[in-house]
Amino acid sequence: MSVREKVIFCWSGGKDSALCLHHVLESGRYEVLCLLTTVNEEFQRVSMHGVRTALLEQQAAAIGLPLEKVMVSRGGSNAEYEERMAVALRKYQARGAGTVIFGDIFLEDLRRWREENLAKIGMSALFPLWQRDTRALIDEFLALGFGSVICCVNDAWLDETAVGRNIDADFIRGLPPGVDPCGENGEFHSFAFAGPIFNKPLQIEVGEKVYRPVEGTTPTGSDSSSSTVCPPAAQSRTKGFWFCDLLLAGMPA
């Protein structure tokens, strides 16, 4: 029996992460030591996605993998982020992990930034979904029976009616021209709650919808969970982001 390579999986909680993790687990080549997620220290929510830490923890438990949370301060510098991330990574590096896996698809600058930061501590990056056709990926995601809900949208492309919707064929068909089917340019973010990687699905309820202007979200490239880069055509039109509060059924708001 071959020895599986020990890896860290950079986990946003969204659909691309979920599909990527499915491929990693199905390959049988890797031992995933943890799901690593950046969390806003002040709000106790997943960076940029706005999902409650309590929900993130239940998601990881339903998948059956340990969760490693890296706390980042609101408006913190890249240097602070890199330092805190390095501390978490070295903990697993000491256990034999030399690679971090990401669900990124085609953002070259983000990939290079990740690779350069990992190289500083002697680690490498792996991108199983890299340059795959995003329409084919979302079709595969749905065909596999995954379930996910929109938790955040960029207002240059989508409005408050999109947050809280499940990602399905109707949602994809209704996306405005120029929006990537996987939201890979930061047009929207999601939370996966069901599918082949889950031991059991999570029962999700949609709570309050909130609008945050750009200066209140401070999206930067330092978010390890996902890209927050706006498509070039949207950069001048992005005023802020719509979020919806996601709750487990029965969880107090």
CATH topology of the largest domain: Rossmann fold
Name of the CATH superfamily of the largest domain = HUPs
Low-confidence stretches: 217-233
Biggest sheet, open or closed, and with what strands and sense?
6 strands, mixed
Beta-strand level of the residues, as a percent range? 25-35%
Number of helices: 7
Structural class: alpha/beta
Helical content class: 25-40%
Query: Which CATH class of the largest domain applies here?
Result: Alpha Beta
**Mean pLDDT across every amino acid position:** 90
Number of domains: 2
- Rg, please? 17 Å
Looking at the overall shape, the CATH architecture of the largest domain is 3-Layer(aba) Sandwich
Please provide the count of β strands: 10
Describe this structure in words.
By secondary structure, the protein is of the alpha/beta class. It has two domains: 5-126, Rossmann fold (3-Layer(aba) Sandwich); 135-248, no CATH class. 28% of the residues lie in helices and 26% in strands. It has helices spanning 15-27, 53-63, 78-93, 108-119, 134-143, 169-173, 214-217; strands at 5-10, 30-40, 45-46, 67-72, 99-101, 124-126, 147-154, 188-194, 204-213, 240-248. Strands 1, 2, 3, 4, 5 and 6 form a six-stranded mixed beta sheet that branches. Strand 1 (5-10), helix 1 and strand 2 (30-40) form a beta-alpha-beta unit. The chain is globular.
